Every structure is written in structure tokens, then in C-alpha cells.
Known about the structure:
It contains twelve helices and twelve strands. The protein is α/β, with parallel strands linked by helices and 306 residues long. The chain has a single domain, classed as TIM Barrel.
Amino acid sequence: MINKLVEKIQKMDAPVVVGLDPTMKNIPDYIIKKAIEEYGETLEAAAEAVWEYNKGIVDAIYDIVPAVKPQIAMYEQFGLEGLKAFKKTVDYCKSKDMVVIGDVKRGDIGSTSESYAIAHLGRVTVGSKRIAAFDEDFATVNPYLGTDGIKPFVDVCREEKKGIFVLVKTSNPSSGEFQDRLIDGKPLYEIVGEKVNEWGSDCMGNDYSYVGAVVGATYPEQGELLRKVMPKAYILVPGYGAQGGKGSDLAHFFNKDGLGAIVNSSRGIIAAFKQEKYAKFGAEHYAEASRQAALDMIEDINSARK
Ligand SMILES: O=c1ccn([C@@H]2O[C@H](COP(=O)(O)O)[C@@H](O)[C@H]2O)c(=O)[nH]1
């Protein structure tokens, strides 16, 4: 899957992933109203609105954006109905040939990580059959439990030719509380970066490993260092747009080949119609606003990496 991701980024000239992070606050009122008319004020209505909203965005961007990153929390808040909308979204994006990164941030003791890996990237055995449940192409993984929490994901990635992005230096304001702590003179994020390199060394695609890393756009200096520490890891870069990251901060997240990083924006794209810059589209044309915001983002990122 890492090869497909790289090929799509090259073909579309777009190192960009759109985060499908639907909230009731950002879904246009007319979509919510229609869903409530059909299902009442229920979780089913919320899930239907989420799905309609996502479908509109995916239809508007699938030909210019290589990948999506649905954030599972936004679906879980609607319980089982929300998870059904998550799965429907994953399947729909895949039917449009988009690469799907499940932002699920899993990781536990080995035996539990194995089940998480099976749930999101692998196949579960039922009688004589092996069935894929959520079936994303990549998943985000929390490394806090160490190697035995990561290994089951790596094993499934090797078997299924899928991938993971390990949290190395997150984009949020408090990320330094633990991640920047010095251990024997080195920040923890650098030590995790070195482990990403090690975990990914024996599961390589053509040029990049199945094991990638998450490094926030809000920390460009750390991004530059980590790019060198993990030369073969694709870096998923959240924090662009709504969290303040800009294209000009990102040049050093990329390798000399112009590859090696994919930048995420969620609210900045899916709720573009609410920004003054795209207000002319109006809520009814929210998906067209998202397409324009994605085109602008691609131009901004490309001007930094070339
Ligand atoms: O370090 C991290 C890791 C993950 N995220 C996730 O990315 C998106 C960002 O959303 P925006 O609306 O573009 O701010 C969201 O799903 C986060 O959970 C992150 O922001 N930082």
C-alpha cells in the first residue's frame, strides 16, 4: 500500500490527505434537517448526515487528492451507527481508488494489539473464513507500550501489504510534555523516530517502508531532524491549516526526491465553506468549497517542496 500511496502522490502531484472528521457543528444544516426528517432525532440520523456529508466531499476531491484520513473518534461519538458510517466511508473511498488512513491511534499489550491490527488492517477468522472488518489501508498507532505493542501491527502489515503511521512528534500544544523529555541527552521523539526506523527496516516497499511516522506541521524544526533520523519512513503531517501549520514550514519534512511526507488537513478542507475565503460557495455547495480548498492546499504545499 505504501507503493500505491507514493504512486498516487506522484501521479496527482499532491502530497495531501484530506481528514474526514465530521462533526454536527460542521455538517451543513440542510443535510442534518433531511436526515432528521427521515430518522427522527436519533443516532441513525446523525450517522446518515455524516455519510451524506462525507460522500459529497469524496465525490468532489477523489480525482485530485490521493488519500483520506477518517478520524474514528468523530464516528464513535455516534456509537454503533457512527461506526457503520465509518465503515461505509472507508469502503466508498476505496471504491474511488483513494488510499484510506484510519486515524485510530491504537496500541496495547501484544495480544490486544494483535486484535486491533486484525480489526483495522487484517482479517479475522470466522470458521473457515478470514474476513476483513474495517479494512483501512493504513492505521495510526501509539508507540507508548513499546515494541511488543507495535510488532503485531508490523506483522499484519507485512502479510496484507498495508501500513502504519507511528506517533512520533504530535502536533498539539502539549506534545512536548512527554515527547520532548530528554533521555540520555536525546528527546524522546528522536528515540521513537529511531525505533520507527528499526521497526520498518524489514518491511520495505519499493523506496519507503510500510512503517511510517506522524510528525506535526506545527513543529518544523523537529520535522527537519526526524526526516534525517527516519529516511525511509513516510511522514504523515497533521497540524496544517486549522492548527496553524503552513506550507512554508514544511519544506524539510520532504526528502530530496520531493517525496516522504503527506500533509493532512481536516477542518480546513471539510469545513471550508465556513471560512470567509470560501464563503461565496455557501453551505449548499460545501463540497465545491472543499475542492477549492484542497486545490489551494496542494499549491501551497507544492510551492514548499519543489
Ligand atoms: O499529532 C497529531 C495526530 C493526529 N492528529 C489528527 O489529525 C486531524 C487534524 O485535524 P485538523 O482539523 O486539520 O486540525 C485530527 O483528526 C487529529 O486527531 C493531529 O491533529 N495531530
